[in-house]
Description:
five-stranded mixed β-sheet; single chain
Amino acid sequence: MTNSTANAVIPGPRGWPLLGWRGNTLRFFRQPFSYSQHLYHTYGEIVSLARGSTASLFAFGPEMNNQIFTNPALYEVRPNKLFRVPPNTPLGKITRNNLLMMNGEKHKQQRRLMQPAFHRQQIQKYAEDMVSLTESMLHRWQGKAHIDLRDEMKQLTQHIAVKTLFGLHEVGELNRISELLERMQNSLFLSAIIPFNLPGMPIKGANRAAGEIDAYLQALITRKRGELEAMDVLASLVRTHDEDGYQLSDDELIGHAFTLFVAGHETTANALTWSVFLLSQHPTKLAAVLDELDSVLGGAAPTLEQLPRLKQLDYAIKESLRLMPPAIVGTRVAAEACELGGYAIAPGSSIMFSSFITHRISELYEDPHTFKPERWSSMTPTPYEYLPFSAGPHMCIGAGFASQEIKLVLAMLLQRYRFGIDPNSNISTDVTMRPVRGMPMQLLPVDHKLNYVQVKGNINQLIKFNGG
Length: 468
Ligand code: HEM
């Protein structure tokens, strides 16, 4: 790179009057898919959200991902600047003790302590709960002709999270703690949009919910200390210590437990919902998965030993996570002045990377907007070319957990029903990759022949259906 490039102005749209880059950030949140594609195709790999400023940037594609993820000391995670959590409150405690807000040695130490709970052998112990909670849901569906798959998947992944993370059994308790955590998560989301610590503002509701969660998790941790046989994630975190004997404090345990619940269930619910939708809309691709399920499982729930043999299922899940990644962007902040993609970047600049754009680069993925699970039989992209679980030191700690859960649940659902999308339903999503208007599905018998169904909504801009 030459100095002249480093001094060049980063290309991008003009900032808005008064709002500057914030105006274009709002536009991104309103139209995340079309606007980020427009930015990438118009301006290239590095884009400023207000030309002439480096305050807020997009860095697109594998080369930029590589630079960001291999330099974590330079590209740090930071709490949302807009959202200042009051210190010494339950909310402060819960949101601070979160891997996604930690850098450097602190992050390494805390992640090392959490890692044993996510080792392969440990995750395998959660398979039984995943299967039995899915079985209960299927039992509940008996006699129903219609469901909202989004709501069902959300409730299922919540129950799986609360059971495997906290070891809770009783349905009433599962529901109560799921609702409490959800209430806190929603008010946190609102607080990020309206970040004022004033009476009646969402942050007050978040703090009240945080107080209840704090007390609940504290009591649970005390209980876990006496339950030496418990196998859930929290029990494993309570017992774990590093070679110097350091153990997670109660505040750290509470923060991590909350983060695991938030990070783990909605992402997985969305991945499951989109996988079923994409397979139902592509009957020939579904047929390949069903043939395999039939020959390997013959109608039964899969065992862990059988999972590696479900190759077609694995390809379909990979393809669904490529097209509809539950986390479409992530953010890092430049810790000091640096150069990225040949441009000089000021300290404090916020840089967004995008799995959504990377996964749709035609040089990496032929016919990128089409659902083609079979492409995975001959593809091995680098971690910077395929990153539904991110890459680098903050890569999802629950990736193995989620993959196992998605495979087990999908294998069971697809063997029990054909999922018929209601014609003309509005299938749309937003920056959270949630089906915002739900996913209405008819539960049909397995001998029903599915066809591609014309639907409304922005899914038609995201997927090239080719009539199924
Ligand atoms: C399909 C499901 C999931 C997807 C797509 C997903 C995606 C991600 C992504 C993209 C990140 C990194 C964000 C960044 O680099 O800024 C992440 C981090 C994380 N995820 Fe997941 N996740 C999923 C499921 C789970 C599950 C099931 C758990 C736990 C049970 C979990 C726990 C976490 C945690 C704790 C982090 C922070 C890691 C760190 O900062 O070191 N996730 N996830």
